[in-house]
Design brief:
- The chain has 8 helices and 6 strands; from the N terminus they run αββββααααααββα.
- It is mainly alpha-helical.
- It folds into 2 domains: about 130 residues, no CATH class; about 80 residues.
- α3 packs antiparallel against α4.
- The radius of gyration is 29 Å and the shape is elongated.
- The protein binds zinc ion.
- The site of zinc ion (ZN) has 8 residues, from loops.
Amino acid sequence: MNRWSTRSPGRPVQDILTARRNGQRSRIHNHYLKSTVYCIECGRRLIIQNTRSKSGRVYQYFICSRRQGDDCLQRKALPVADVEKRVEDAYRTITLTEQQRQGIEDIALAKLRRQHALHAQRREELENETRKIDSRREKLLELYYEDVLPRESLLKHQRKLNSETTRIQQELAAVQIDDNALEQKLRIALDLLQHSVDHYLQADEATREQLNRALFKRILLGPQPDQIWIELNDVYDELINAPTPHTKPKTG
Ligand SMILES: [Zn+2]
């Protein structure tokens, strides 16, 4: 057996061919919703299928990306215009009224500020610990220079203090959060939610794709109008599902 036997010489070529094929396919079948819409039956992506009519006109559909042999009950192709419209409608359901937005903002800000207070308290504790360690370091050196402490013991104690310091610095980094930046981010997120449908309807396709990626994990769709399941990204999910004392959740 020679030393190259573990290599698979055909592989890189195959990769390049596959990449080219995929590149070409995505140029033809690209759509700004492609990373947002999924099959409600099996959770796979919906992909674009072009169908040419006898007159030569091309119709675009979204179909489940199941491969042959995969199980999925969704056999229907969803017309692209329909899917686009249903995503616009999804925006209407997540858009907040001024009152809802205010309610969520109040609660979220209160939560943020409680967190800030806890962080500030922890920072103080950690800074205290750091000061104690510093004075221990000085004390050890004094003892060493007074020949009370042997060099070996000094090094041993110093190593221990060093690892303590590392732990403290790591924890400090975790609680050293820019509070203002967080509140700013929250307001930006709420602005987007409050006006999301207006933003979306006015946006070009590239911006629509970005908005979709920012807001949604997935939108799962089936052929029936009520077959829609919206999964928001975590930050928006938390905001939307925060209990709002000023408003009742919509029913029906
Ligand atoms: Zn499916």
